C-alpha cells in the first residue's frame, strides 16, 4: 500500500510515542526526527482548529532548511478546545487537575492539525473529534494525575489511559485523533501525494 511514497524517506517530526505508534499502524517505513526547541507560539486571534493547523505548518517550516530532496516530513499538533479556549499541555500537576476538572461533565473538541511536506508540495488538514466527559470526582482526577502523569498530553489526558476508560462517555469523530494523529485521514492524504 501507499506505493506512491516509495520514492520518499518518510520522517515523523514528533517526539510523541503515541504518534509513532499510530503511524506505524499504517505499515509505512519511517524514521522519527524531532527538532529541539521548535517555536509553537501562535497568533492570539486564532480559534479552534486553526491553532494546531498553524502550528503544524510552522513545525514543517522549521524542517524545510534541513530537508533532503527525497524526504517527506509529517508534522502534527493537537489541542483541546474547551469553552472558547485552547488547552495545550499542562505546565504542572495543578494545571492538569484544573484542566480535567473543567472538562468534567462537559463536551470539548480535540483538534489535530497535520502538515505533509516535501521540497515541492505541502498538504495540510485539521481533524476534529468531540469528546464528552462524565462527571469526575476530585478523587478520580487526583488518582489519574498522580498515577499516569499526563504532563505531555494536550488537555492533560490520554484517551488510551485510565481516564479515557472511565471518563469518556461519548466521542464523535476519530478516536485516534484524540490520541494525537487522525490516521485514517492521514492515510487518505498520503495516497494523494504525487
Q: What would you note in describing this structure?
A:
By secondary structure, this protein is α/β, with parallel strands linked by helices. It has a single domain, classed as Maf protein (Alpha-Beta Complex). Helices cover 33% and strands 25% of the residues. The chain has seven helices and seven strands; from the N terminus they run βαβαββαββααβαα. The protein has helices spanning 17-24, 50-63, 93-103, 138-148, 162-167, 175-179, 183-191; strands spanning 9-12, 31-32, 71-82, 85-87, 107-117, 122-133, 168-172. Strands 1, 2, 3, 4, 5, 6 and 7 form a seven-stranded mixed sheet that branches. β3 (71-82) and β4 (85-87) form a beta hairpin. α3 crosses α4. The longest helix has 14 residues, at 50-63. The chain is elongated and about 50 Å long. The mean pLDDT is 95.
Order of helices and strands: EHEHEEHEEHHEHH
Q: What shape does the CA trace take?
A: elongated
Proportion of beta-strand residues: 25-35%
Q: List the uncertain runs.
A: none
Intertermini distance: 14 Å
Task: Give the CATH level 1 class.
Answer: Alpha Beta
Main sheet summary = 7 strands, mixed
CATH level 3 topology:
Maf protein
Strand runs, count: 7
Layout: helices, strands, pairs:
Elements lengths: L8 E4 L4 H8 L6 E2 L17 H14 L7 E12 L2 E3 L5 H11 L3 E11 L4 E12 L4 H11 L13 H6 E5 L2 H5 L3 H9 L3
Parallel strand pairs: 1-2, 1-3
Antiparallel strand pairs: 3-4, 3-5, 5-6, 6-7
State the main characteristics.
single chain; 194 residues; alpha/beta; Maf protein; 7-stranded mixed β-sheet; 7 strands; 33% helix
Amino acid at each position: 500500500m501507499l506505493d506512491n511514497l516509495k520514492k520518499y524517506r518518510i520522517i515523523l517530526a514528533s517526539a510523541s510515542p503515541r504518534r509513532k505508534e499510530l503511524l506505524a499502524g499504517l505499515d509505512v517505513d519511517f524514521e522519527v526526527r524531532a527538532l529541539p526547541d521548535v517555536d509553537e507560539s501562535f497568533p492570539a486571534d486564532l480559534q479552534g482548529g486553526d491553532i494546531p493547523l498553524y502550528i503544524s505548518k510552522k513545525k514543517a517550516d522549521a524542517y524545510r532548511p534541513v530537508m533532503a530532496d527525497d524526504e517527506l516530513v509529517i508534522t502534527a499538533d493537537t489541542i483541546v478546545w474547551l469553552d472558547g479556549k485552547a488547552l495545550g499541555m499542562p505546565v504542572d500537576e495543578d494545571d492538569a487537575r484544573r484542566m480535567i476538572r473543567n472538562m468534567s461533565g462537559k463536551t470539548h473538541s480535540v483538534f489535530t492539525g497535520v502538515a505533509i511536506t516535501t521540497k515541492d508540495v505541502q498538504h495540510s488538514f485539521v481533524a476534529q473529534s468531540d469528546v464528552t466527559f462524565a462527571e469526575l470526582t476530585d478523587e478520580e482526577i487526583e488518582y489519574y494525575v498522580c498515577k499516569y502523569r499526563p504532563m505531555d498530553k494536550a488537555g492533560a489526558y490520554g484517551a488510551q489511559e485510565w481516564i479515557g476508560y472511565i471518563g469518556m462517555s461519548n466521542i464523535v469523530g476519530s478516536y485516534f485523533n484524540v490520541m494525537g494523529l487522525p490516521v485514517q485521514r492521514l492515510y487518505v492524504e498520503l495516497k494523494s501525494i504525487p
